[in-house]
DNA sequence: CTTAGGG
DNA sequence: CCCTAAG
């Protein structure tokens, strides 16, 4: 003991006995669901498989079916066609690129094959979705889905996301493209490298990642090389419309709430885990909407239940008070109620729609069903953002909202003339998808996978959209629907759509994501308070420390305090030259060491 | 929920 | 800061 005059009455064995843990009870253990990330794809895979099965009953295809992609694509509505072309050719020049879906569904005759999702990725530029067959016997009927999704992206990141592999997360992925499919690709995209590689190696690596979707402003980096050239080739195929210009319209920059901390970009660090969403946790950026939402939580007081729905726990609630950048969540099946700001923020409701074009060429009667999916429809996308927010922040907010939806938990729904096609076992013929006269009414929709999702709690508080009931909200997306036929999709009632209607990071719609709290360095006064409290209470009563010294600082949890103490001890032990960040007064560090030594000794004495 | 520690 | 096993 170096000294005893620490400015308090001396170290003592804790006076206040702690309640036994058993008396405090235990909550349920959170359960993680590792494979959640791919759940969204599972349905799609099954859909693809069913579509393919359906094709088995179809008449052999006409080779012409696959010859002219451009004949297939955009052959639906005028609006879609024109827009599609203009997008393909012009969008990059205006600073956007087409985000594309590809789904190849080779159908077979007389061969029962299992189709597996080959790729599903959404990088900043590409949302690629391919379903291939492991079989080399393709007699007939390729079903080609070509979807394009317009997204504003930064072209510099073309292919950069290639290294992030969805396959790596699940054995369910990583199937083979074989010659037939490759031929299809070649025929459409004219990319030799892709074809040859697909034939030779048979494996199409996953490309893209969620994190890249968010962090758009970084330069391409070495990641690209790690997954071989195949991805690049594939991307080259997909992005055969070059985007040569520099786009920064979706640049995402982070600024911490805390005045003490400003982060502008993070170009260097790459998440060690390349699941598509893991990087989000590490590197995605907090947006103003989320901040406002969080603050609204705080301000609402008793009106809203705490995030974790436990009114008895004040400390866990604190965590929810903070602002979270997106991060990967290991699928806690919690559905914290989302809320919206009742304050003076003006809200902007954005109905994000998409349209799907489908066509059955007459010459392929009963054979191939070729669909061009201009874009998946996202049922609802409502953004809440202060009226004072900048356009840039709006873009970022929308981007993040979209990312939140795309990141996980999606399910592809089929809409035929506005009605959901629920029976996955029906063939396309039986369903009517293959019938020419109905081609205009086929739609695909992305929905949350968790159909059991209950309507968001914040539904009760949608005053931020004056005069709008949730039903009204649904209508808002209709005017933005590109194609008249697809408006029917908007009207399709869906619980999932309800859930998506509150994208302001209502994690219901995307339980994969939580937001990492922003970093808030401890101030000197906080350190002082912490040291003082620990001197008094010891190093094993962090809840008491919290109550004693940080009760009013809702963003400091007892875990935070414990962590801070840990770092303080570490800081005190290393040389001043090694210390980083805001320097802590040596006097405090000395007290830290002294208190730490004292309470460690006390602990040892009690234990041994 | 809290603690305690590793990441 | 996050995550989580233990208590």
TrEMBL record:
Keyword Plastid on entry: no
GO cellular component, one term: nucleus
InterPro entries found in the cross-reference section: Myb_dom (IPR017930), SANT/Myb (IPR001005), TPR1-6-like_ubiquitin (IPR057625), TRP_plant (IPR031105)
Domain spans labelled HTH myb-type: 516-573
Tagged with keyword Nucleus: yes
Entry's Gene Ontology molecular function annotations: sequence-specific DNA binding
Subcellular location: Nucleus
Protein name: Telomere repeat-binding protein 5
Source lineage: Eukaryota, Viridiplantae, Streptophyta, Embryophyta, Tracheophyta
């Amino acid at each position: 003991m170096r000294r005893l005059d620490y400015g308090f009455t001396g170290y003592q064995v804790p006076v206040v006995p702690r309640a036994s843990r058993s008396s405090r009870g235990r909550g349920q253990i959170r359960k993680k669901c590792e494979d959640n990330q791919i759940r969204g794809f599972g349905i799609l895979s099954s859909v693809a498989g069913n579509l393919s099965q359906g094709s088995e009953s179809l008449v052999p295809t006409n080779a012409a079916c696959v010859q002219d992609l451009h004949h297939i694509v955009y052959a639906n509505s005028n609006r879609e066609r024109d827009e599609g072309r203009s997008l393909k050719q012009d969008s990059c020049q205006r600073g956007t690129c087409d985000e594309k879906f590809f789904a190849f569904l080779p159908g077979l005759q007389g061969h029962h094959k299992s189709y597996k999702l080959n790729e599903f990725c959404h990088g900043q530029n590409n949302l690629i979705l391919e379903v291939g067959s492991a079989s080399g016997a393709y007699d007939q009927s390729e079903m080609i889905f070509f979807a394009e999704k317009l997204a504003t992206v930064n072209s510099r990141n073309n292919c950069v996301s290639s290294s992030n592999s969805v396959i790596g997360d699940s054995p369910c992925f990583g199937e083979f493209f074989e010659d037939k499919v490759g031929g299809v690709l070649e025929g459409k995209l004219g990319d030799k490298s892709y074809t040859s590689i697909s034939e030779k190696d048979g494996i199409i690596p996953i490309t893209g990642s969620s994190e890249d979707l968010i962090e758009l402003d970084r330069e391409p980096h070495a990641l690209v090389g790690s997954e071989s050239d195949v991805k690049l080739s594939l991307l080259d195929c997909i992005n055969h419309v070059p985007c040569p210009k520099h786009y920064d319209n979706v640049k995402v920059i982070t600024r911490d709430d805390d005045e003490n901390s400003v982060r502008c970009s993070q170009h260097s660090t790459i998440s060690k885990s390349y699941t598509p969403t893991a990087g989000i946790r590490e590197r995605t950026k907090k947006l103003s909407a989320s901040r406002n939402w969080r603050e609204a939580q705080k301000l609402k007081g008793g009106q809203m239940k705490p995030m974790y729905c436990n009114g008895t726990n004040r400390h866990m609630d604190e965590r929810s008070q903070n602002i979270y950048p997106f991060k990967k969540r290991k699928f806690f099946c919690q559905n914290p109620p989302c809320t919206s700001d009742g304050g003076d923020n003006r809200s902007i409701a954005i109905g994000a729609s998409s349209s799907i074009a489908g066509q059955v060429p007459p010459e392929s009667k009963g054979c191939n069903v070729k669909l061009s999916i201009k874009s998946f429809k996202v049922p609802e996308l409502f953004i809440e953002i202060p009226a004072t927010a900048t356009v840039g922040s709006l873009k970022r907010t929308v981007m993040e909202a979209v990312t939140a939806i795309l990141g996980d938990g999606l399910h592809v729904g089929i809409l035929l003339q506005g009605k959901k096609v629920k029976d996955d076992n029906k063939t396309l013929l039986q369903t009517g998808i293959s019938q020419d006269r109905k081609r205009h009414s086929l739609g695909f929709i992305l929905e949350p996978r968790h159909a059991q999702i209950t309507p968001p709690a914040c539904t009760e508080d949608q005053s931020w959209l004056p005069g709008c009931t949730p039903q009204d909200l649904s209508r808002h997306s209709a005017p933005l629907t590109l194609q008249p036929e697809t408006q029917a999709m908007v009207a399709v009632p869906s619980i999932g759509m309800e859930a998506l209607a509150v994208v302001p990071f209502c994690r219901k719609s995307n339980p994969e994501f939580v937001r990492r709290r922003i970093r808030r360095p401890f101030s000197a006064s906080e350190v002082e308070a912490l040291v003082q409290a620990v001197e008094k209470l010891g190093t094993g009563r962090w809840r008491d420390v919290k109550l004693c010294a940080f009760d009013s600082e809702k963003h400091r949890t007892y875990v935070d305090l414990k962590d801070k103490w840990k770092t303080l001890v570490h800081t005190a032990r290393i040389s001043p030259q090694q210390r980083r960040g805001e320097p802590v007064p040596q006097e405090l560090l000395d007290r830290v060491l002294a208190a730490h030594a004292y309470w460690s000794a006390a602990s040892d004495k009690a234990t041994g």
